[in-house]
Amino acid sequence: SFEQALDTPQASAAVVGVLTAAAFALRFYKINQPDQVVFDEVHFGKFASYYISRQYYFDVHPPFAKLLFGLAGWFVGFDGHFTFENIGDSYSDNHVPYVGMRALPAILGSLTIPVVYAIMKETGYSTLIAAFSAIIVLFDNAHVAQSRLILLDATLMFFMSLTIYSYVRFRKLRYWEFSVEWWSWLIATGFFMACTWGSKVNGILTVVTIGVAVLIDLWDILDHKKGHTMELFWKHFMARAIGLIVVPVIIYLSFFYVHFAVLTHSGSGDTFMSPAFQETLIGNELLLNSQELRYYDTVTLMHKDTKVFLHSHVERYPLTYEDGRVSSQGQQVTGYGHEDSNNNWQIIPTKALPETGPGRIVRHEDLIQLLHVNTQSFLLTHDVASPLMPTNQEFTTWPKDNHSRFNDTLFYLNLVDGNEGDAWKSKSSHFRLVHAPTRVSMWTHSKQLPDWAFKQQEINGNKNPTEKSATWFVDSIISQEGGYSLMLDDDELKEPKKMSFFKKFAELQLLMLQHNAGLTASHPYASSPINWPFLLSGISFWTENDTQKQIYLIGNVVGWWTCIISLSIFIGIIGADLLARRRGLTPLTEPTRNRLWNSAGFFVVIWAVHYLPFFVMSRQLFIHHYLPSHIASALVAGAVLSFILSDTVNYPISIAGRSTRRRPEELADLGVQGPVVVGVFAILMFVMFLYMSPLTYGTPGLDGETVNQKRLLSSWTLHFAAKTNAEVIP
C-alpha cells in the first residue's frame, strides 16, 4: 500500500528532506527584511555586541543562546560598534552584518522541523503522522516570525526538541540498560537539557518535564511485582543522577564560565553587581577610584539606595511636630541630593593613633566620630523619636567642645561582608554606621521632610543594626589630613581583583531570579496564558508608517486550533477509557492503550509543564512564551490523529533485549483516508500561512482594507486598519 511504501527508510528520508528544505525556504525568505531593529532584537542584539566588545552586562536569561549570537556576529565580522538602541534603527546605514546574526536562529528554527518529525517516527508513528506534526510547526506564522529575528526562542525550542528526542531514544533502549548506547542517549538528554536551560529562563521547564518522566520511570522500576532488586534500582537511580543532574549542571556552569571569561571589561551591568564583583572588571570606576581612608580625612557619605548625601545645616528641628510630638530642637541632619559643602564630614578617631603608617587607616568595626565640618559639631543620635517615624531615632549633632554627651557621638563602622582588619575604602566599601550606645543603624528613606527642612530627606536611626537598606558608601574624599598622597602607581591600581567563579556565579544567579520576578511592568502586547492556545492576541513586533508595513506575531489559526481540539479529544478518550475499564470493558487493545497513555501522555505532560506554570507567574507574559508548548501540542495532535484513523499502532517499537518476552507485532493502518486527511490539512495550513504572510515577513505593505481582512479575530490589534463604516457614524 501507499502507506507502507512511505514507511520505508528511503521514503522517510525523502519526506524529511522535503520538509526541511521547505522550513529553510520559509525561514530564510527575505531574512534581510526589515533592515531595522525589530522588537527584542533591541536586547539580544545589544548583548551580542557586548560580547564582541567584552563589556560586562546584566540580563535575566542564562548566557548560552546569547553567546551563540555573539559568536555568530563575530563570525560574520560584526565589530560590536552598533548598540541596537531603539526598535526601527537601521542596520544598513550602520553597516551591521545582521543577516548573519539572524541566520543562526533561522537555521536552528528550520532544523527543529526534522527533529519534530524524528520524535514522532521514533515514538512509533507512521511517516504520514510524523509529517502531519512537522507541518503544524513548519507552516506556523508565529514560529517563522520568531525564528527570523535575533531572539532566543528558536535556540530554546531547537534544544528542547532535541532533549525530548534524546529522551525517547533513551527510553526505547530500556531493555538494553547500561549498554554504551543507553548511556549515550542518557547523557545526550542531559547535555541538550542543559543547552535548553542555558538558552532562556523558561528552559528550566524542560528540565522539570524530564524530571517528571524520570520519576515515573523510577517508580516503575521500584515495583516489586517486576521482580527488580533494590540494588538494581539504586544503579538506575545513580545512572540518571549522573546523566541528568551532574552532566547538565557542569554544562550549565560552563556557559557562565565562558560568559565571565569573555566579559572582562566594565560595562552597563556593573552597577547591578557587588563592589567585590565590580572590582574584577577592567576599567571599573570603583577599581580605578577607590582609595583607603585615613583618620582626619574629610569625606562625603552617600546612601546606596536613594543616592542622597548625609547633610547637616545650622537650622534646627522645630520644638513640636504637627502630631504634637516633641523634638530635641537639635541641629537638623538630613539627606540632600546635590553637591554642597554642608555634606562634608571629617573622620575623627576615638583611640590614640601612631604618627604615620597603616595605623592611621580606618578599619572594619572601628569606633569613630563624624565631625560636621561647617558647623564644627559631631553627629549624634539619641532616644528621641525622629520627625516622620515615631519608632525610629532622631539624628542631630552636638557641639565639638561640649563633652557632656561624648558617648552618644560614637558609631561603629561596619563594612558589609567585611572581615577583621579590612580597610575602609572610598567608592567600593559599602558600610553601615551603627550607634554604639543604642545599636541603631543610620538610615534614610525617600519620604521628604516638611518646609522647615527644605523638603530634604529624613535621616533616622533604624532599630535593626543589620538593616540591608541602611547601606552607605563614601562618594568622594574632599581633603586628606597631612597631605598624604594615597595614589598608588598606575599599574598597581588598575590591576583587576580576583574573585572565585562560584562566588560570581552565585551572585549572578540570585540577581537573575530577583529581576525575572520583578519584570511586572505592563506592556501593551502582554497577554494572559488563557488566551494563548486560542490565538486571541498577538504582538506587534515592528511597524513602518510610510509603507504601512508591519510584523505581527500570530500563529497559524488552522494549526493552533487543530492542536487545541486534539488536546480536548485526548482528554475525552482518556476519560472514556477510564470509565469503560472501571466497568470492566476494554474498548482499546493493550498496544493502543499503551501508546495513548505512554506516548501521547508524555507529549501532554510536556505541553502542560511548559504551559501551566505561566498561570502562577506574576511577570509580564507574551504569546511567544507558549511556542514550546505549541510544539508539544503538535506532537499530541499527531498522536490523536493516528488514534482516530487507525485501530492499530506500529508495535512494539522499543528495542528488544536478549531476554525480553516477544510480543505479537502489529502495524498501523491509516487506510485511504490517511493521505487524504494529511494532504488536505497541509494545503489548508499553507494557504492560511500565505494569507497571513505579509504580517509574518513585514512585507509587502498593506492598505487599511486588506489589514481588516487579515484581522481574523476582532481581538487582534493590527496597525493601519481602515475604519469600517459602522465606526464613522456622525
Automatic annotation (TrEMBL):
Record InterPro entries: ArnT-like_N, MIR_dom_sf, MIR_motif, PMT-like, PMT_4TMC
Class of enzymatic activity (EC top level): transferase
Keyword NADP part of the UniProt annotation: no
Gene3D superfamilies in the cross-refs: 2.80.10.50
Top-level taxon of origin: Eukaryota
Compartments (UniProt record): Endoplasmic reticulum membrane
Protein's name according to its UniProt entry: Dolichyl-phosphate-mannose--protein mannosyltransferase
Organism annotation: Serpula lacrymans var. lacrymans (strain S7.9)
